[in-house]
């Protein structure tokens, strides 16, 4: 690991192995401890289903200036089969061998899948342009698994599959030596400081969670859903987060993580089904999360989320059952890079979601990423979108921008 780097400085690097030399990458170090000057810029991305389309959003992200770090919020790859022409990419110049046309299960499968993704020129460009900070969601292993419980694969073989997937993740993504996996476990949650402007508590909401209740999917919560001991993060991670918040001196506390924290209803009259895979399926865990932020005195909380393949901008309410209750933070949900294929700005449930969730300020169903710019006074979110991913080259536009002022949580449109 390089030592003695200067804070807030651009560096260029290459890798050499034998006679091979990699293209040049560019990175940037974080501000020095205590430095609250200037601004920081992060990009949030998630959900790169190669077989659903081109990573055009990442090509545009590579061209964004002064990004301090790209935050990948999960589904870096998908375990599903990819056919010879790359699924919906339908790329006639691609002739993938049959071994890609099956779900990933073994270590070799997962390694090959990373090699396929890492040959994508748009993904390469985004890695070469900016440093990345990653966390995972489910598809790096298997759809909607929970801790040691698989979603569809045989339970007795699942831990071997998880071990293979975690090892390949560690081998292929920018993690640090303490995160080296041990068997089927990997220490993923961690804390990073960007001077005094931002503390990032990067969560793992997949490896330590209880199983989804009520049969997963969108369901009306059951008694089990409401059980007070249900956990999303596990006790150890919950305590670690609370301690980190208590000791935080940062102006902004950012929480890059996987699944939607805020309440989401998909209808305006009850009974209300909720997403059992998201924090809505773990209401006691969400209460503890918000209570921990409150008792720690976190003033500027921004939760960054992926998973749902749409953009949302939401205020985090102290009590989601009371739309008049105060906002205690903001949640910025980034859409997918490619998962879901070509999207539309207003999906069929667009109006219903906005009506059913008054704390939701914005919803867009296209592909893209979120750019965050923050300083001592405010956090700004720009929702970047591309219209098409089933063919390359779509331009990028900013669909909406919001700010939340320091000390006054809540999103205001720009
Ligand atoms: Fe996804």
Automatic annotation (TrEMBL):
<protein>
    <submittedName>
        <fullName>Alkaline phosphatase</fullName>
    </submittedName>
</protein>
<feature type="region of interest" description="Disordered">
    <location>
        <begin position="208"/>
        <end position="230"/>
    </location>
</feature>
<dbReference type="InterPro" id="IPR029052">
    <property type="entry name" value="Metallo-depent_PP-like"/>
</dbReference>
<dbReference type="InterPro" id="IPR052900">
    <property type="entry name" value="Phospholipid_Metab_Enz"/>
</dbReference>
<dbReference type="InterPro" id="IPR018946">
    <property type="entry name" value="PhoD-like_MPP"/>
</dbReference>
<dbReference type="InterPro" id="IPR038607">
    <property type="entry name" value="PhoD-like_sf"/>
</dbReference>
<dbReference type="Pfam" id="PF09423">
    <property type="entry name" value="PhoD"/>
</dbReference>
<feature type="domain" description="PhoD-like phosphatase metallophosphatase">
    <location>
        <begin position="42"/>
        <end position="383"/>
    </location>
</feature>
